[in-house]
Amino acid sequence: FVNGKFCKNPNLTVADDFFFQGLNIPQSTDNKVRSLITGVDVNKMPGLNTLGVSVARIDFAPNGVNPPHFHPRSSEILMCMEGELYVGFVLSNAFENRFITKVLKPGDLFAFPLGMIHFQLNIGKTPAVAFASFGSQNPGLITVGNAVFGANPPIGPEVLIKAFQLDKKTIDYLQSQLWFNNRI
């Protein structure tokens, strides 16, 4: 095992281990968040094992969002290819949770440091496309709302009431929602 994956005998590797096609194909954004991520990591492209890289295509409908999330094993650099994206991340508690943000146009790059909660929102009137590169063969993805309010089994409301300073009715409502996973 290396990073949780079996290393394939190099004598048995084939070109398809190092090949993926389809990132040029737009994906449907007809969902709750109006975005869809096509990720290519070691699970979809075995040849990435031990290389420390992976990529993703993110399609956005107008007003589509890639909700607040973080990658526990990687930093990310995002390139806006089409449209106009409002992006940002929140620094850690040690830096007073300062919010770092920018509007990206085609050709612009923005970096998200390892483990920082970040998002992207299409603020344009047309669809947007971005490509993300990660410094890990398996960056992982934890979408904050899904993890907190869609946990299975649910996190006890007494914890969430105190943590978010909300009433039980609001917590019950948030936990009753179907939290969408926008990654394929």
UniProtKB/TrEMBL annotation:
Cross-referenced CDD domains: cupin_OxOx
Cupin type-1 domain boundaries: 34-172
Principal localisation: secreted
Residues involved in oxalate binding: 66, 71, 76
Binding site for Mn(2+): 69, 71, 76, 118
UniProt cross-references to SUPFAM superfamilies, sorted A to Z: RmlC-like cupins
Pfam families found in the cross-reference section: Cupin_1
Keyword Nucleotidyltransferase in record: no
Molecular-function annotations in GO: manganese ion binding
Any one Gene Ontology cellular component term annotated for this protein: apoplast
SMART domains per UniProt: Cupin_1 (SM00835)
UniProt entry keywords in alphabetical sequence: Apoplast, Disulfide bond, Glycoprotein, Manganese, Metal-binding, Secreted, Signal
Entry's localization field: Secreted, Extracellular space, Apoplast
Known role: May play a role in plant defense. Probably has no oxalate oxidase activity even if the active site is conserved.
PANTHER family for this protein: GERMIN-LIKE PROTEIN SUBFAMILY 3 MEMBER 3
Protein family (similarity comment): Belongs to the germin family.
Annotated protein name in UniProt: Germin-like protein
Organism: Punica granatum (Pomegranate)
